[in-house]
Design a protein that fits this description.
This protein has 11 helices and 3 strands, in the order H-H-H-H-H-H-H-H-H-H-E-E-E-H. It has helices spanning 3-22, 26-29, 40-47, 49-52, 55-64, 69-83, 86-94, 107-123, 134-143, 146-152, 180-187; strands spanning 159-163, 169-171, 174-178. Strands 2-1-3 form a 3-stranded mixed beta sheet.
């Protein structure tokens, strides 16, 4: 997929997510996301962090976290989520649908993955019936590398992921079936709500 198409998909994803966030109730902003220990508003603060932080500020926060990205990301997300109103968080996303940020080493595909995965962390956790269009999901799945899966800590030993809405499989072993976007979350080490997955291994990847 070329850069123009990826850029368009990123803008569409941010635009759609901003519309979804703008319609959330106050209690939903404080609900848990699929990111363990993160509220919905924390995840949104993390999504918009690249638009709000200069390179210098990012480096300073990394120094304060002694080079540990996950520590820095959670600290900044929680702080910013509490300092910014929900309206400010939505605006930070809506006003930056065409922002050219790329994660280090990830390129535009990495930026799309970042926005799609964290968007699902919110919508799936809240039980919203808002599937991500197939083209975006396919682009993210096609760009997912084994090192990314190792980073997220997903243990797929003896399991084959089988999408029931796209022609896509991953791995080998006992079949675990679900929508492509739910299986993307499995690849990212998320534990899904009940009812999203079928197959013998589902208990390893779903809340009971």
């Amino acid at each position: 997929m070329d850069e123009a198409m990826l850029t368009a998909l990123i803008a569409d994803q941010r635009r759609d997510l901003a519309a979804t966030l703008g319609a959330l109730r106050p209690d939903q902003w404080h609900a848990p996301s699929l990111c363990e220990g993160w509220r919905v508003r924390d995840v949104v603060a993390h999504i918009v962090m690249p638009f709000r932080y200069s390179t210098g500020k990012f480096i300073l926060e990394m120094v304060r976290a002694r080079g540990k990205f996950n520590v820095m990301a959670m600290r900044c997300a929680r702080r910013d989520a509490d300092e910014l109103s929900t309206g400010e968080l939505v605006d930070a996303l809506a006003d930056n649908v065409n922002h050219a940020w790329k994660p280090p080493g990830g390129g535009l595909a990495g930026a799309l993955s970042h926005d799609v995965i964290h968007g699902l962390d919110i919508t799936v956790a809240l039980g919203l019936d808002q599937p991500v269009p197939d083209q975006r999901i396919r682009a993210v799945l096609d760009s997912t590398k084994p090192r990314s899966i190792r980073y997220f800590g997903a243990d797929l030993t003896g399991v084959q992921l089988r999408a029931d809405d796209l022609d896509w499989t991953y791995g080998s072993g006992e079949p675990l079936t679900g929508s492509a976007q739910d299986l993307l979350l499995v690849l990212c080490g998320r534990t899904l709500p009940p009812g999203h997955l079928t197959g013998e291994p589902r208990s390893r990847f779903s809340r009971q």
